[in-house]
Structure formats: C-alpha cells, structure tokens
Amino acid sequence: MLILHSPMDMHVHLRQGDMLALVAPHTARDFAAAVVMPNLTPPVTSLAQVLDYRQEILRVTGESFTPFMTLFFRAYSREELLAARPHIIGLKLYPAGMTTNSEDGLADMRQANATLAIMEELGIPLLIHGEGCGFVMDREAAFLPVVREWAGAFPRLRIVLEHVTTEAGVKLLDRFENLFATITLHHLFITLDDVLGGLMRPHLFCKPVAKRPEDRDALRRAALDHPQAFFGSDTAPHPVTAKEAPGCAAGIFSAPVALPALAGLFEELDALDRLQAFVSDRACAAYGLTPMARDVRLERSAWTVPQSIGCVVPYLAGQSLDWRVVD
Amino acid sequence: MLILHSPMDMHVHLRQGDMLALVAPHTARDFAAAVVMPNLTPPVTSLAQVLDYRQEILRVTGESFTPFMTLFFRAYSREELLAARPHIIGLKLYPAGMTTNSEDGLADMRQANATLAIMEELGIPLLIHGEGCGFVMDREAAFLPVVREWAGAFPRLRIVLEHVTTEAGVKLLDRFENLFATITLHHLFITLDDVLGGLMRPHLFCKPVAKRPEDRDALRRAALDHPQAFFGSDTAPHPVTAKEAPGCAAGIFSAPVALPALAGLFEELDALDRLQAFVSDRACAAYGLTPMARDVRLERSAWTVPQSIGCVVPYLAGQSLDWRVVD
C-alpha cells in the first residue's frame, strides 16, 4: 500500500462540455487538486470566465477536488489581476500558435513586461508553454533565453516552465530560485523514437514533442531529485477521430494512468519514497499552497489499461500496470 | 515544354499483386526505367525470384519500361552472383529491422565482407539502406562509418547510399569516387517540421525520417550539382488503412508526382537545365548504363494531384502542380 498525501496534477486540460464530463472524473478521482489550463475556445481571459469554468468543472467532479484556475495570458491591468487573484493560481502564457488552441497567444514576448511587473508585485505566478519558433526539436531551447531574461528581470515572479522536455530546460532551474518546472508522465517514458522511430504512433504525439534519450534521462533525474521540479501531466484528451487522422491533433490523455504509472516508474528507479515530493510537496512549496486534507491510496495489484475511455484512447492503452488507485 | 531523355527513378518499391498493378503504371508512364527494390515478403534472394518478379512487373507495365532488378543482400556464392549478374543491377542491403519488410536484413555488418569482395570482383553494385541503430535522428550518421569502411576497403565496388537524408551523408560523397547517393523527391521538400512540427502528418512519415532544414538544404545542393547524386524516389505505397492508423506504416507514394514536382522545384531554384543530369545522366554514369531510347515530355500546365489513387494517398494529394507529363 502506498499513501500519497494531497497528490496534485499541476497541468491538466479538462476541456468543456461532454469531453469535460468524460475526462475530469479521472483527474478528480486520483488527485486532490489540479491546475486547469485556460486554452479553451475562446480562451479564458476574464474573471467571469474563470468562475464559470470553475463551476462547470465542480459540477462534474464534486467538491472533494480542487481545480486551481488559470487565466490565459494577455495584457491585463492591475485592477483586473487584483480582482482575479483570489480565484486563480497563475497566468498561463502561450507563444502564439505553439499548441492546441493557442492561436490567441502572445506573438511578441517584449509585450509581456508590463503585465509581468504587475504579476510580480501581486505575487501571481507565470506558467509558460516554453516553445519558440524554428525547428521542432529546437523550440524549447529557442525559448529558454526568454525564460532567462524574465527570471532575471523579475526575481520575485515565480515562473513555471511547463512540461519541460530538454536537459537544457532542466539545467536552467539551477540558475534561478524563482524558476520551476512541471514534468509530464509521458516525457518520463518516451522519446522521439517511440513516436516515429519504428512505426508512427499518433497516440504518442504531443507538444512539445518528445526529445532525445539524454533529455528523458535528465527529466527522470529531476523528477526524482530536483526541488523545483514537480508533476504536471499535461493530460490532453482528443477524440480518437482527431488522433487517427491525416492531421493528428497533439496531446496525450494520461489522467487515468498517471499515478499508477508514476508509482511503477519510481518503484523501478528504487525511489518510491520520493513520489510524495514529486506529486505534491514540491508544488506546494513552489506555489505556497496548503496541502488539501485528502489522501490517495495505491496498492500493488495489476490491471490492464482499457483500449478506450469513451471516444478517447488513453496513454498506455492495453498495457498492464502494477499499481492501481483504490478507494 | 521540357523534354527529358531516358528519365530513370533509381529507387522504387513496386510491391506485388493488386498493389503492383495499381502503382507500377505510374512509374512506367513517367520513367524509362527504375531500380526495383527486393524487400518483398519473402525477400527476393534468388535468381528465380528475380526473373519471376521481373515478369510480374512487365505484365503490368509493358516492355517500354525497363525494371532494373535487385537481389536482397545475403551471403551469396560467386556462382550465384555470376549467374544473377546479367539480370540484376545490384544487391540491396538492409540492416535488419530498419524499414518495411527488412526483418531478414543483415544484423552484423562484418558478415558482409566475403560477398562484398565477390561483388567488387564481378562489378556488381551495392545499394544500401544506410541506417544504423540508435536514436531515430542519428541513424544515418550512425551508419556512415560502415559506408566509409566499405568504400575504402573495396575501392572498385560501386556503393549507392540510398535515400540520403543528411548533410553528413552528402559530404561523404566527396571522399570516395566509388560512392554515390540517391535523393528522394520528398526529402528535397520536407523536414521533420512537416511531419510533426504542426499537426502530425502520417502521409509524410517515411524511413529514413525527414531531418533538419540544413540537411534538406544540403540535399538540394547535391541534387543540383553533385555528380555522384541522382534521383531515386523511394516511392513506397501503403493502403490508406495502414497509414491512417495507430501504427502508421513508413513510406510515401510519390511516383505519380515525381517528375512534375521535380520540374517545379528545379524551376524554382532556377536550375531546370540541371534536371536531365539529376534524373538520368548521373545515374547512367554511376551504373555504366546506356540510356534507354525514350523521351518523356512535360509541359507547364497546372493540375491538381488527386486525393487518392485507388487505396493509396499520393504525395502532395490535393495540391496544385505547375508541370505535367504529357504523352
């Protein structure tokens, strides 16, 4: 038996409507709380939208689950952010066009400074999809200079480099106390080889794309040991029709397997005692959160991940996992 | 009007049965000859199979098209190769497991030496799928030391590095007079960005996978100027059901668009006068071939590539091309 105190998934896409109703219960069952991304259509850019979306989520999940809400980054006034602050955990910045529903993202990073200064003053964290332009394998590296600049220019602004995928990204954590990173489940397992080194696997296609073996190794080391790195699954469901199609959508639906697969990996790495830090403690410290009073228990008992959950194919579909979440 | 004398596609997969009947006419319509790869199931490893397969092809294409046949590389005796020599253009070597139907390929490159020595003596070229083990973006580079070793150890053996995809591969041509390379149509156009930099495109998935922009630029320079580089489309049809599926098969069916798209590219690069060398002259020189007495004419006249040809989605489906082959 493994008991996790207040496990939190610090990066989820819960979608809306029918998809929300399908996927949110999986996150709510296994996690006490989750950081909910605001890349809806249209994006969540007002307090009213935040509150509406929060209610929509809670109607599905019930009150035992805490959705930490985010605003989609744009230029906000001090008044707007002051009013939103009690209701959000941070602002999520997307460079324009980098992933699903990010067309409204920021095109010129220099336009962010005024809002970043207000966020720093008000103690509101910045969550970043850290990819710049250019060749797909270099996009995270291309964005790191922006992260460096902001982390240095706004030393009291807490910045989270979301779904970090490269060794270079992980190394940057050592240079700034105010810089943090989430690491997904799938980037701890797969590299580009899994995506298209053999046959091509649309269900392993995500943004940022999985990188090189040495990058994955760096992510694993950080997940085990780095005080500024914590878990954010980036669970991102798409209907199977959008995945198994000529223009396959980017995203991996990992919510149903996240804790069991993490327990299996940490056990394999002889580090099961460090899972609590990765899935809760370090995120609490980074965000200054009080842990929820909710434990989640896993037992060592094999099960097979279903081939589909509604219209969505989950990560690790059809595979056997050694750990399961129990009530 | 553009007249090409004896255009040849020096690397095609014509398959068998119904698929052969569907795809071979496209190659036979636009090319005077083509080098036919032997990775059937089972692979073509005997003279009897070569002759049977050649007959199967000619029944579909008619005699105005010349299929240059190949044997699948294994350990052959001098007697076998001497008997096969009048009927083949070379032996195709696949490292085991690197692409479609290559499971019977060579696992240990050191086992090749005896057969390579016989091929050198008999003047039979070696065609190589040049990928080694390891991370997918590094596999061609990982194989180049083997190419270097063989090109140096067997200086009279003509070696063709098939579907070269990297700048490093192109550069190796300068070191060995007996080393040549084919370049595909699609590698002159796409990079990994096109495959999964935006949405994921199964119809652009091939082996070797498309590489970086600087690699593509090197391939373009070689296509225009390098005397040891010539055209081999690697046209590789799969049914749409095998492409738009969770385990998408590797291969791009480019035969129906190869010459028109090449004409468009060479025109764009202000090098239309060099297309003849790329699609015929340099290959004749490399293999010591007498050009077929057949011209193929293209005219500048727009057409739209069909969305599908039978059960296969062609490269550039739905796009408009400026050149077309005319009778």
TrEMBL record, chains A, B:
One of its GO terms (molecular function) is zinc ion binding. Its EC number is 3.5.2.3. Zn(2+) 2 binds at K92, H129, H163. Residues 9-241 form the Amidohydrolase-related domain. Pathway: Pyrimidine metabolism; UMP biosynthesis via de novo pathway; (S)-dihydroorotate from bicarbonate: step 3/3. The keyword Acetylation does not apply. SUPFAM superfamilies: Metallo-dependent hydrolases (SSF51556). It comes from the Bacteria. Binds 2 Zn(2+) ions per subunit. The modification N6-carboxylysine is found at K92. Zn(2+) 1 binds at H11, H13, K92, D234. Pfam families: Amidohydro_1. Substrate binds at H13, L14, R15, N39, H129, H238, A250. One of its GO terms (biological process) is 'de novo' UMP biosynthetic process. Keywords: Hydrolase, Metal-binding, Pyrimidine biosynthesis, Zinc. Transmembrane segments: none annotated. GO terms for cellular component: cytosol. Its cofactor is Zn(2+). It catalyses: (S)-dihydroorotate + H2O = N-carbamoyl-L-aspartate + H(+). The active site is at D234. NCBIfam families: pyrC_dimer. PANTHER family: DIHYDROOROTASE. Belongs to the metallo-dependent hydrolases superfamily. DHOase family. Class II DHOase subfamily. Catalyzes the reversible cyclization of carbamoyl aspartate to dihydroorotate. Homodimer. This is Dihydroorotase. It comes from Desulfomicrobium baculatum (strain DSM 4028 / VKM B-1378 / X) (Desulfovibrio baculatus).
